[in-house]
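User: I'm putting together notes for a lab meeting next week and I want to include a structural view of one of the chains we've been expressing. I don't have a solved structure, so I'd like a prediction I can at least talk through. The sequence is below, exactly as it appears in our construct file.
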Amino acid sequence: MKPVSEHPKIEVSLEKIETSQHASFHTGVYKQPYFSGNWHYHPEFELLLIVNGQGKRLVADHGEDFEVGDLVLLGGYLPHAWIPDARFLEESSEKCCESIYVQFRKDIFGFHFVDVPELKGVRKVLQASERGIKIIGKHRMEIAELLQEIPKFSPLDQLLKLIKILDLINLSGYQVLASENYLKNSFYFKSNRILKVHEFIMEHYKQDVSLEKCAEMVNMTVSAFCRYFKSETNFTFTNYLNKIRIDFSKKLLINTDMPIKEIAFECGYNSVPYFNRQFKKIEKISPYILRKSAKD
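Assistant: Thanks for the context. Below is the predicted structure for the 296-residue chain, given as structure tokens.
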């Protein structure tokens, strides 16, 4: 076996997309023995085609199997991960995982460009992608072929191809992935201080996330930070941290066969009984019952 656990380690992180000084968006090809399985998010939209590989795709509170030809468009700040099938983790495996992707910000079109009547379909698709969409329908193969060709073109032609693809997605049809409740319950921050703390939690949730460290990071005393955090999020700092951890544990319970003890450790809990108590406090059921009901 490769030097990974039986179940691939899944970490949460803010991914920073590096773009060329000659381009306002990023295109690329990922080709490795297996997908990393990192649970991450970034401000950019992401259009991604699976060229080779299979496993479980997680997008926000949605999870399903993926295989060759899987094609999705994900909005900015939408957490996601591709967890490879266990066969790709075997040391003797000659299999590899490959994807082609485009990552872009909405402002690459300018502030008013997508508002023109001719791009009504593009606006609709970008809005729907806030919950993640799986592209289906009669134009899916054409979209996949265009996406595979994009890395070969000049930056200007890439942008024109991207607009064409987004329009075709609207004509082709798509399946929305994350639930409406996910967006309603997602965290949107007016405060840059709270956003900075949120990103720190998302990157370090498996470790001992210190209240004092977070307060110091935004240049506040602990007492002032606690009051400010509660006023901005309607959560105490501890409750917010537990919600982030429990939310991720639910995805592992539903979408993997990892033992509950291992899931607790993966989500930053050193004590399984404490994890069980926090889970039941937030979800009103035990981790075992959640997993059982999801599989029934």
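A couple of points you could mention at the meeting. Confidence is low (pLDDT under 50) at residues 1-14. The first strand starts at residue 12 and ends at 14.

User: Perfect, that's what I needed.
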